[in-house]
Amino acid sequence: MVPGVRLVVLGKQGAGKGTQCVRLSHHYVVPHVSTGDMLRGEVKSRTPLGQRAKALMDQGELISDELVMEMVGLRLREKDTRARGFILDGCPRTIAQAEELADIVAPDHLDLVIDLDVPTAMVLGRLASRRVCMDCGANYSTSSPPLTNWTCDVCGGEVVQREDDTEEAIRRRLELYERQTSPLIDWYQHHDLLMSVDGTGTPDAVTTRCVQAIDDRRTKPVTSP
Ligand SMILES: [Zn+2]
Questions:
Q1: What is the edge-to-edge ordering of all strands in the sheet holding 194-198?
Q2: How far is the CA of 195 from the centre of ligand 1 (A)?
């Protein structure tokens, strides 16, 4: 039997984080706990938490850290994640959240925090060439467009460049991410939990590197939160 894992995956937008999380969740047979997916699910099924999130979004407010951590806390205390672990995606974003996460997971601890490292120039290229269906959200790019004329292969909707996908806007988002995340990266490094993994190359190659990093880690003693 493959042992489970308690893993956090960090990475800037366009680094392929979502893809790798799904692959790792299959490999280790643990849930992929994505805060973005969970929030959408809560809103869609109108849970009390989803209704609070929706009220914030309707007012144009950001979803608070507290609400996100509450949701993550509930999910990570369920039986499946308690027993085998999780691949956490989208959280933590701050040191305070990382401390709270350690409390949620206790008396267990994280096995590893993977920082998927892709050069900014490469991510910029990927994001700037991205095109998306306005109706169903299917992803395309200038190098792999829909079969006919920017009409979605899946639903027939219009395929466009998102307004916030201009190079200028992408660059700003990436800078903001670096600024916000670097203290968190330092913190995990300090606690000897961080492993930077080269996120370039094929998805298969990146998954192999991640699995290697995780499996290597298991053979070493862990000291921290
Ligand atoms: Zn579509």
A1: 32-34, 85-89, 5-10, 112-117, 194-198
A2: 37
Alpha helices (H) in the chain, listed in sequence order: 17-28, 35-44, 48-58, 65-76, 79-84, 95-105, 120-128, 167-190, 203-218
Q: Which amino acid is at 91?
A: C
Q: What is the pLDDT of residues 140-192, one digit of tens each?
A: 999 899 999 999 999 999 999 988 788 888 888 899 889 989 999 999 999 99
Segment (H or E) for 194: strand 194-198
Phi, psi at 10, each rounded to 5° = -110, 155
DSSP run (H or E) holding 5: strand 5-10
Neighbours of 71 (CB within 10 A): 22
Using CA atoms, how far apart are residues 59 and 208, in angstroms rounded to an integer?
A: 43
Residue 223 has pLDDT above 80, yes or no: no
**DSSP tag of 224:** -
List CB-based neighbours of ion ligand 1 within 5 Å: 133, 135-136, 138, 152, 154-155, 157
Taking the C-alpha atoms of residue 126 and residue 27, their distance in angstroms, rounded to an integer, is 26
Structure token digits, residue 33: 């706990």
Catalytic (active site) residue 93: yes
Two structure tokens written together for 200: 């370039």
Residues composing the chain: 225
Nearest to 126 by CA among 185, 181, 203: 203
DSSP lists the bridge partners of residue 6 as 86
Structure token pair of residue 42: 């809560």
